[in-house]
Amino acid sequence: MSSLPVLFITFVRIGLGAFGGGLATIPFIHYELVVSNPWLTEREFSDVVSLAQMTPGPVAVNAATFVGYRIAGLAGSLAATTGVVAAPLALLVLVAFFVSRASGKAKEWTERVQRSLRPVVAAMLLAAFWTVVRPLADDWRLWPFSAAVLGASRLPVVRKYPQVLLLGAGVAGMLLF
Amino acid sequence: MSLFKVFVLFLRLGALTFGGGIVMIGLLERELRGTEKLSSEETMEMIIFATALPGPIAANLAWLAGEKLAGKTGAFTAVLGTVIPPFLTILFLSKFFLLHMNDPLIAAFFLGAACAVAVIIGGVVFDMTKISFSGGWKDMVVFAVVSVLLLAFRMSPFIALGAGLSLRIALGEEKLR
Q1: In this structure, is residue B79 part of a structural domain?
Q2: Nearest by CB to B20, which of A22, A96, A129?
Q3: What is the ipTM of this complex?
């Protein structure tokens, strides 16, 4: 089966669902890659999210590049990444066109949608949190470990460079687990 | 601004933007400050647009800013510049990661890093919930409904998002903000 169109369409859906950006996209990525398609296990999904947090770029783009590569090599990476970036941009151009035509009313609506999205995005983030925590919760060792990470997250260095927390926790994990 | 300059500028932003689009707008403002290429009003408008619509916020912002700086080709160039650094980073790491993801040491690293991801998302959830709860009871109701749909009913995030957004719009705007 040719997997490129499937990859492309899947990531078009993720791109169009990714309201709120960044971490709020996680439930959509999880739904498409773990629930709907057997492309990633829960653990692999969690690894991809960690990898995405350690590297530059939006989570959705990072996930697209990784999953695309895994399923269909470089061509898969390109298809998935193009899908997740280009589909929302096409929508953006379309909406911008109508907003420029339709005076103040459309702009008012854009702002209203943005405000209305706030509590929805907050709930998406809660679901993202649960997606990440659920596979970890059974392992009792991770509770005191996470408490220590939470403590470390208050350090000024970490506040400035959050990646330090990820790398530090990873290295500590290598020593402890 | 020349296309080459736009490309280099967004290549730099793409490589430095960890965590997503909102971080990028700060970097973009710093880069363009004093050049009078973007007024703060234009910047505000771009943020509203990029966050009211779906898709990776960094890519949406790159499109809008690139268009302001150098027209439609500028928009395309800016998106390309933003996406290339994360794309190449993940492509490079994917090969290594797929070969070694089952090594005990690498698995331990990602277990530790996942705890840090949980802590980071937990922090974002806490902040976002505070913000959306300050928006009054309507926001709280929408937050609760979407959370229940996602977590208790395991509903598709696409449906939960549509339901939450429609509900919030149906409830109407607060008179006093």
Answers
A1: yes
A2: A22
A3: 0.89
- Yes or no: say if A119 and B146 are a contact pair by the CB < 8 Å rule: yes
**Among candidates B19, B48, B124 on the partner chain, residue whose Cβ is nearest the Cβ of A125:** B124
Please tell me the distance in Å from A75's CA to the nearest CA on chain B. Answer: 11
Output the CA–CA distances (angstroms, integers) from residue A108 to A65, A113, B68, in the order listed.
36, 9, 21
Question: What is the rounded distance in angstroms from the CA atom of residue B26 to the CA atom of residue B58?
Answer: 11
Query: How many distinct structural domains can be found in chain B?
Result: 1
Q: Could you tell me the residue range of the domain that residue B31 belongs to?
A: 1-100
Residue of A51, A99, A14 whose CA lies nearest to B55: A14
Tens of pLDDT along chain A (177 residues) come to 468 999 999 999 999 998 888 888 999 999 999 999 999 999 899 999 999 988 888 899 999 999 999 999 999 999 999 999 999 999 999 988 888 787 677 778 888 888 888 899 999 999 999 998 988 888 889 999 999 999 888 888 877 777 888 899 999 999 998
How far is A118 from A114, CA to CA, in rounded Å? 7
Q: Is residue B25 part of a domain?
A: yes
C-alpha to C-alpha distance for A172 and A14, rounded to whole angstroms? 33
Contact assessment for residue B97 and residue A54, using Cβ atoms and an 8 Å cutoff: no
A155 touches chain B (CB under 8 A): no
Which of A34, A112, A129, A161 would you mutate first to test chain B, the one with the most B CBs within 10 A?
Answer: A129
The answer to whether position B126 is within a domain reads no
